[in-house]
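> tool_call: predict_assembly(chains=two)
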Amino acid sequence: MKKYIVKTSLGLLLFTTLFVACTDSFVDREPVYSIDSENYFNSEDDYYKALIAAYDMLQSSYVNVLLGEIASDNTLSGGESANDVIGFQQIDDMTHTSVNSNLKDIWNWMFAGVNRANYILEFKDKTDFEGKEQIIAEARFLRAYYHFELVKWFGPIPMKGDARFKLGDEKIIPRSSVEDVYASIEADLIYAIANLNEVAPETGRATKGAAQALLGKAYLYQDKFVDASNVLEDLITDANYSLVTNYNSIFENSGENGSESVFEVQYTDTEGAGFGCLQCSEGNVAVGFNGIRNYSGPLFDSGYSFNVPTQDAYDAFEVGDNRRDVAILNIVTWASSTGASYGTGYKHTGFFNRKYLPRQGDANIGDQNLTNPNNYRAIRYADVLLMAAEAYNRGGIDDVKARTYLNQVRRRAFGDTNHDISASGAALTDFILAERRLELVGEGHRFFDLVRTNRAATTITGFTPNKNEIFPIPIEEIQFSNGNWQQNPNY
Amino acid sequence: MRSKFLLFAFLLFTSIGLSQTVDVTGTVLDSSTGEVLVGTNIFIKNSQTGISTDIDGNFKITGVPVGSTIVFTYLGYKDFEYKVSKSESITVKLVETAQALNEIVVLGYSSQKKRDVTGAVTVITGKTIDDLKPIKVEQALQGTVSGVVVTQQSGAPGAGLDIKIRGVATNGSTGPYVIIDGYQGDLSILNPDDIESITVLKDAQAAIYGTLGANGVVVVTTKSGKRNTKTKVSYSGYTGFQETSKKLNLLNATEYALLLNESYANGGQSLPYPNVSGLGTGTDWQNQIFNKAPMISNEFSFSGGSDKMAYSFSASDLYQQGIIGKGKSDFKRNTARLSLNADLSEKIKFQTNLIYTYLDRDSFNDSGLGSVLFNAINTPSTLSVYDTNGNYTLVPSTPGYGIEIINPLAQLDNTFNDYKLKKLNGSVRFDYDLINHLKLTGRMGFNTSNSDGKSFAKEVSYGGKVFDVTRSSVSQNKINDNSYTFDFFAEYNNTFGENHKIKATVGTTVYKEYGSGLFGTGYDVPNNSWEYADLSLATGTGGDGVRDTYSYAYDERRLSFFGFFEYAFNGKYLLTGALRRDLSTKFGPENRVAIFPSFTAGWVVSDENFFKQTKALNFLKLRASYGVLGNDQIRNNGYVGSLSGEATYVINGSVVNGTAVGVLPNPKLQWEEAKKFDIGVDLKMFDEKVSITSDYFSETRDNLLIGNIPVSGITGVYAPGSGSPTINAGAVRNRGLEFAINYEDKISESMKFKVGYNVTTIDNEVLEVNNSTGYLEGGSFGVGQLYPVRMEAGQPMGYFYGYQTDGIFQNQAEIDAHPSQAALGAATSPGDIRYKDLNNDGVINQNDRTNIGDPIANVTMGFNFTFNYKNLDLTSYSYASLGNDMIRNYERTLSDVNRLNYVLDRWTGEGTSNSVPRVTTAATNNNVLSDYFVEDASFLRIQNIQLGYSFSDNLINKVGLTKLRLYTSVNNVYTFTKYRGFDPAATNGSPIGGGIDYGFYPTPRTFILGINANF
C-alpha cells in the first residue's frame, strides 16, 4: 500500500510538473524575422526606406497616363477587341460607369500612395536626425502628387491629414471639397519648395523645381493665374532646367533624367510582375500596352496596341514640326520603309504612341510587356514653359512673356524662328493650348487640359457636360462608405 | 489498445458438477482469408471458463459440460456459438464484420467500442482502401463516407485533393484536421496501404480538438503488428496504364474555317478562309497532347509479434506518368514504415511508428489561362503540329489569336521543373499503468521534411507571345518544415457498483510548427539547357538592386489543456462531456484563449427491457451531440502589422528596396466558432445483416475568418505586398441529413455479397457577411470582367452572380421592344443574348445580376457492392453528386480560337436558335457572365470496378504461400453527366470561386492488373 502511495505521488508530481511546465507563456513568441509597423522610424534609414515605399506608388500611375490620353481626343482605346480591357474601351467611348476596374485601380493605387506618404508623416516627430526636413518635404511632395491625381480624376476625396486611413474611416470621413484638397496640395508643395534642394540628392527623387512645377500646375487647374505665374517664373528664373535641343532624344533611354526633366517617374526593365499585380511591376506597364500589336521589325518591340493616336492628332502637326514623327509612329510608312510587319488591333488607326513604345534591347525581365524601362517624363520643362505662358496670358498678366515662353517651345520644335507666334489675348490662348497638345501628346495631360479649359464637351466625342469632367467613384467604394460618400453627379 | 483485448489471461476454474464433461479442441480461422486467428477468446456460456487460441490458432478447452455452448469472440468478427455434444476437434471460421459493434473506434486521445460511440463517426477500414486502390489516401473517402465530399484539383499525377466534411462552412480553409497516430499530420503524402483505419469525426465529438476541430477531424491509424502472430510476409503490386476519361468536342478544321468565315462576315470583315476545301479535319490537338501513360506500384511488408512485442514493416514504390506530358508530369513515391510495440515491463508499454516518404513530382501549368490544356482547346485545328522544317508550328502572331495561345506541344517541350520532398514522420508513445484504473500516457509525434524545387525558364520565342522568355533563368528553393505534437494525459477507467462505468481523461497537448524557406534565381543558364540549369552554373544576376533571393521563416505554437469524461450506465445510457482550452499564436493577444465545450449522449434502446429484440431489429441506438469547435486555419501573425509590403523604386538608375506596410493587421482576430448539433440513430436488423446509420446535423459557423476581405482602397491595401486584414465577419449554416445502409448476406456458402449505399443532403446558407457591402466577391471569369462569384447572406456560399438570359433576340423588333442592353458595353443585334431586366428599371445593367447557380451539390451519394463467389471477388464503388453547377470558362473569347462544337447550333437567322448566340468578330454583350455559361455539373461516377481471383489454399500452400490473389481493376470507369467540360467533379476547392472550370486536367481512367501474395 505504501508503495502505491509513493508511486501515485511520484506520478502525480510528474504529471503536475509537466502540466505546469506548459504555461501560457509558451505561446508568447514574437513573429519570426518581422518588423512591427507601429514600432518603426527609429533611424534615418527607417525614414529613407519608408520614403522609397512612397515613391514606389508613382509607378502605378502608368494607368493615369494611359487613360488621360484615351479619354481625350488624342487617342483611341485600341487593344485586341471591343472587349479587351473593357474599362479602357468604355472610357474611350465616354460610356464608363462606376463599374470600372481601371478607374478603381487609379483610386486604389493613388490612395495607397497617399497612405504611404502619410505613414511617414504620421511618425514625422518620432526620431530626429540631420536632413529630416528633406525627407519630410519629399513625403509631402509625394502626397501632393497623389492628391493632385485623385482630385483630377475624382473631384472631392477624403483626407485625413498626417495620418494613415484606417479601416472604418470610409464610413466616417467625408469627401473634402475640391478647394480643400487643393489647399492641402498647395500647403504641401509650399513646404516642399522651402525644404527641397534644387538638385536632387539622388536621381529620381523630387527637387525644389519639381515642387514648384507641380504647384504651378495645381494653381493653373484652379485658374489661379497670378499664383501660377509667380511660382513658375521662380522655377524658370532658377534656371536649373532647359529644353533639350533635339526633341527626338527626350524619349529615348539616353534622354532619361535629362536637363528638361523636372520630374520623372523612374522605371526599370529588371524586375517585373504579372497581370495579377500590375502595380507590383518596376517597369512601365503603359509602354507594353501602347506597343504595336504583333509587331516584327526594327527598333520596337510588340505590345497590346492600346492608346492609338487618332488621325486628327497626327494631322494637328504643321508641316515642318519635328515633333510629329517623334510623337506618333505612322505604321504604314514605317512598315514600307523598314519591311516591318504588324497586326491590326481593335480601333486600329495606323498610328502608335511613339514616345512610349517598347524599344528593342530591353531586358524585360519578368514579363515582356509589363517590364519596360521607359521612364515617364511627368513634368518636362517644355510643360513648365507652356504652363507659365498660359498663366501669363490667361491671367491677363503679360502676353509678351507668354509669347516668349511659347516660342521657346516652338523654336525647338521647328528648329527656326519662322514659326513664332505673335498673337495676343484669346488668340494667344488658343495657340498656347494647341501647342500644349502638340508638345505633350501621348503624355497623359490632354483630357485634363481640355476639361479645365472647358473645351472637353466640344472636342471629345460622347463627352457629357456636368458629368464627364470627373470620373465616377468606384461602385465598391460607394458601397464601403455605407452612405458616407455620394456618387459624383450624373453617374 | 488492441493488445489489451488480446491479453485475456487464462482463468483457472474448477467445476464440480454431476453432468458429463468433454474436451473440445480445434482451430479458429478467418472465414475469408483462411488465416489463423491468434488470441480468439473462447468461453463457455454462463460460466467463468475461458481460454484463448495459441499462436497457431489452436485451442483446447477441457471439461465442457455436454449441452453447453462455447462462444468464440474475436475483435472485428462476429461471435460464433457452438453447442457441445461430444469430445471432438472442430474448425471454426469466424466471419469478419466491418459493422461489428465491438470494433474499436480510435477517436484520437482515446478509443471507444463502436457500440458506445455517441458521436457521428464513420470508420474506413484498410479493406476499403484495398478495394479502391487509391493513389492518394483522400480518394478512399470519396463516396464511402456520408457527409464527406472529396474533390480533385487536377487529374495530374500527385495533384492535391480537398476534403469537405458536411458542407462548406467557411470561406477560408475547409480541410479537416488530420491526426496520424495521435499527432498532427498530412494525409496527402501517406501511402494508402500503410493505413489500418481512418476515423472521420463529423460532429461535436471533434471538440476535443478545440480550435482545430471545426472542419471535422480525420484520425488515421497506421498499421502495426499483432501480438502472438507468426511472421507474415506479403507482397502486392500492380501495373497498368491511364488514359483520359474525356475529350471535348471541338471543331475540326473545316468546321472551324466555315465558322470563322461567318464570324468575320458578321463583323463586317473579309473572309479569312475564302477556300475551305481541302482543310479536312486538321489537327486534333487533344489527341496530340493526351496519351496513354503507365503506372506501376510495388509493396513489400512483413509483420508479426510475440506475446511481449509486435512489429510491422513495409516499403513501397509507386510511379505514375501523366496522361498529358508523360514524364513531364510524373509522380514517384517511395515510402518505408516501421512500427514496433513492446511491453517494457508489466506496467510500461512502448509503441513507435516511423514513416519515411520520398516524393518526386514534375508538373506543368495544368489549369487555366495559359495551361497546356487551355492551349489545346483554343489552338485551331487548321494549324499543324510541326512546320515544314520539322519545328513546332507557331500560333500566328495576329490579333485574332491573342498573345496567350501557343502550340501546346512546344509549351510542354519547353517546360522544365522538378520537386522533391523527403519527409520523416512518426511517434513514440509510452503508457504507464500507474495504479489500478489509472494510466498515464506520454506521446510525442513529429514531422520533419525537406523539399527541393527547381524550375527552368528556357530562353524561347513563340513569336511575340506572352510566354516568350528573353533571358533564361533557373529558380530554386529549399523548404524545411517541422512540427511536433506532445501529448501528456492521464486516463482513469473504472466501474462502480455493477453498472456505473466511468472514464475520465485530463491532459495537455503542446504543438509547435516551425520552418523556413529559401529561394534563389540565377540568370543566363549555360547552353540554355535543363542539364545546366542550376544556380551553381547560372551566374547571371538580375538588375542592379534586384533581389534574386528570398526567404521566410515561421514559428507557430499552440498549447491546449483538455479533459473529457465518459459515463455509461448499464451500457445503455451513455454520456460524454469534453472541455478544451486552447492558446494559439494565430490570434492576437486580446483573444489568445479559447474554450470549447461539448456534450454527447447515447441511448441503446435495444438494451431496454421493454424492447423486444427480434430477428428484424437487433440493435437500436439513439445519439445526440452538441458542441462548440474552432477553426484557426488562417495566415500567420494576422493580428500584428508588419513591414512586409513591397517598396521598390528606381533610384540612381538602380532598384532600391525600402520598407512598406504589409497586410493590414487585425488585433482583434479570433477563431471561427462552429456550433455543431447532431442527432442520429444506429440500427442493426435481420441478424445484423443490415445496418443503418442516419443523422441530422446542423452547424452554424460564426465569427467566420474572412481573409483578405475587400475593404476600401483608401486604407492603402492595394499597394504592392499589402492586403486586407483577416476579419471575423460572417456566419454560415449547413444543415443536412445523412443516411447510410449496409447489407451483407450470403446466398450460399460459396456466394456472398455486401452492398452499401449512403446519401447526404446539404442545405448551405450564408447567414451574415459583416463587411460594408454585405457580400464578398471572388473568382474570375473571362478577361477583365466583374467578379463572378459571391458569398452573401441568404444565399449559398460561393454562388454565381450574373445575368439571367431569356433566349436570343430573333429580330430587331424584339431588341427594340426590350430594355436597352447598351450599358453592358456593346450594341445589340439579332442573334445576341437577351438578358432579363430583373429590377424592371427599363435598362439592363449590372444591377440586374442575380443568383444563376452554385457549385454546392444538394445531394451526394455513394454506392458500393462486393460480391464473392467461390474464389472470385467483384467489387465496385460509385458516387454521385446532384445539383452542383459549374461555370464554363475554358474558352478564350478571341475571334480566331477554336470552339466547342455546340456553336454549330448557333443563331444564324430568325428562328434558328434560341439558346446559342450568333458568332461575330464585332463587339457583343454575349460574353458577360450569364446563365448561358452555367452548366449543370451533376454526375454519377463509377469510381472503381475490381475483379479478383484467389487461388485455393491447397494449391498455393505447396509453394509456400498462404494467399495469392490476382485482380484487375478499372478506376474512374465512367462518368454519367451532361456537363460539357472535362471533369464535373473537379474544382480548385476554393469556397468562393470554386466551381469555375478554367480547363481542368481530367482525372484519368486507369486500368490495372495486380497481385497480392502472402507468405
